[in-house]
Amino acid sequence: MSTKIEQTKFKVALIQMSMSDDVDENISKAASWIDKAANEGGEVICLPELFSSHYFCQKEDIKYFNLAESIPGKTTKLIGEIAKRRKIIIVAPLFEKRAPGIYHNSLVVIGNTGDIIGLYRKMHIPDDPAFYEKFYFTPGDLGFKSFKTSVGNIGTLICWDQWYPEAARITAMMGASILLYPTAIGWHPHEKLEHGKAQFDSWQTIQKGHAIANGIYVAAVNRIGLEKLSDETAGIEFWGSSFVADPQGIIIAQASTDKEEIIYADVDLSRIEYVRQNWPFFRDRRVDEYEKISKRFLDEDSI
Amino acid sequence: MSTKIEQTKFKVALIQMSMSDDVDENISKAASWIDKAANEGGEVICLPELFSSHYFCQKEDIKYFNLAESIPGKTTKLIGEIAKRRKIIIVAPLFEKRAPGIYHNSLVVIGNTGDIIGLYRKMHIPDDPAFYEKFYFTPGDLGFKSFKTSVGNIGTLICWDQWYPEAARITAMMGASILLYPTAIGWHPHEKLEHGKAQFDSWQTIQKGHAIANGIYVAAVNRIGLEKLSDETAGIEFWGSSFVADPQGIIIAQASTDKEEIIYADVDLSRIEYVRQNWPFFRDRRVDEYEKISKRFLDEDSI
User: Fold this and answer.
1) Which of B214, B282, B285, B291 to mutate to test the interface with A (most CBs of A within 10 A)?
2) What residue numbers bound the domain in which A269 lies?
């Protein structure tokens, strides 16, 4: 593992794709997209959450535990070979089988040697209609993570983590230049017309907020397409819209809602430094007064 | 002090105004605007940061310490009389003289009996060109605050606090239905053309982010006008744009950049409950893993 930061700029590539119910097909499609991203100069290439399968959490069914795989395992080996061959960093989300009865929504960071240089396990686990993740995923126990790679310091979080300023803050404090959020978020078809725009706006806005609060790049990598696991379910229309925000919260790359595509952005350390010098929020944090963050709620503390 | 929440809805009024170098004039203008807001149904009425004077922090000059006043004092008495007469809650920011050599950028919450029911001292103190607040203001030592009033639970923060997710989070955890941010923010005239829009967008976006993260109303109350303390300084063009965001981060009231005006919004507890039931972020917070928030930075923790 290289711990020396050799570059002051690196190019991230976000692969926005759709998934079928054929795992091998999804992996081989992802591999093709990674090659394309590498051809186009991508140095840190990130796939969407649980990229090798449909978003199975729409239903609670133990059969889907069969989709889980060990880390290291078959998929990390295959992705590792690509990373080594193309000399790139790959962020690959996986349904991790850790032990019988312990599964995680995880991601690995694979270095340009092909080795796994990082493992992150999703810390915040949702449970909402058609997003029954608490059934499948044990909450992460590795804490928040930022990984020093050969091109730069990369913070990794997953989907529901997006809504937690604490996760963004702690990861940024570990020196990350970018927060990468592999994601699987979409509309309930019956809600899209009435609430779709507001839901999307909230999702992008809070992440832009993390960029601003921390003077850091933020990237979300979503899937596209309507996925319907059976005729009993309405399915989820994944809204794509993968994006990169700069350290001032300005959108510098934005994907469509419905197309497979790769978007690129440069992570420029001098831009981070410039923004943080102009808005020195880290300098003025009241670290003496934040310990209450570790409570659930403080109802009795009013006044 | 009433600790019983009697209403499920209350109307906030934000008074966006300009200030002159005449303190008495500013206070009497504020009093008129408060009366107007009360006439129009405002129940919680909030003034801008340091509303009784020019934004003197553009320069470091000990003469401006003479603007500070005790709490309680002349201004809180006058504001208290209005609050009692109109049976309203008033949030009045003040330059607080606490002791010789200890001054704070503070606010009081005055209840509908005319009594001071809350005191908050700005926790995060900026120091940027023309915002030399560290010279004047001792950082707050009362912690973050939410106050139970006769109409609802009100969280108060001041200006630079806006950039800190920790401040919003802790205040929301104390049961606040709204975060009120009296503010004095504006453009350096020489920067406005190039950076003005991006600066404004960042400011509003991060606050919308606090609304979303916490399922809470957020209101910022800014001043307007170009204030130039002397011919030696370029002055600051305060950008107004006071606003209220709802618990999903949707702007529900928005003021102009350059007019004195009052904007109103209903704080509806049922809307907060609806949003938090749909996006139950508080439920899934990883309170076991947030203690690092209390550190300044974590450079050694990468990987």
Assistant:
1) B285
2) 9-302
